[in-house]
Amino acid sequence: MNTFALRFLADESCDFAVVRALRAEGYDISAVSEVMHRSDDRELSEQAHREKRILLTEDKDFGWLVFVSHADSAGVILIRFPGNLRQTLVQTIRHLVQERGEGLLNAFVVVQPGHIRIRRKP
User: Fold this and answer.
1) 30: how many CB neighbours lie within 10 A of its CB?
2) What span, in angstroms and rounded, lies between the C-alpha atoms of 117 and 20?
3) What whole-number percentage of the chain has pLDDT above 90?
4) Which residues contact 38 (CB under 8 A, 6 or more apart)?
């Protein structure tokens, strides 16, 4: 599988600049904000898993869904960037996806300025 086969689902909390940047790189990315205004975290998680899409979010509740309630997941990228460091967000996500590719599948990734943590479900 090449990295362009990676598919993403961005929830409403995901900075839309990330959506635009990944689309510009040729990735298949669906943005919840383009089709609905309010979504349910569990339903989004199930949709992402069903469609084999890595979920892009800034909502910490997805960590609870994956690790505590053991929801199935094709992968989650949790973005934790404070407002004063947002100027590096897009480049950080772009670099993560290019460098890690398939390694993002079925992983829970926390992305912070200068730090990326990748964890697999037990």
Assistant:
1) 15
2) 24
3) 59
4) 12
Q: What is the DSSP string of 1-47?
A: --GGG-EEEE-TTS-HHHHHHHHHTT-EEEEGGGT-S---HHHHHHH
* Predicted confidence (pLDDT) per residue in 46-88, tens digit: 888 899 999 999 988 777 677 666 677 889 999 999 988 899 9
Alpha carbons 47 and 113: distance in angstroms, whole number: 28
Mean pLDDT, the chain, integer: 87
43 burial (CB, 10 Å; 0-12 / 13-18 / 19+) is exposed
Q: How far apart are CA 93 and CA 88, in angstroms?
A: 9
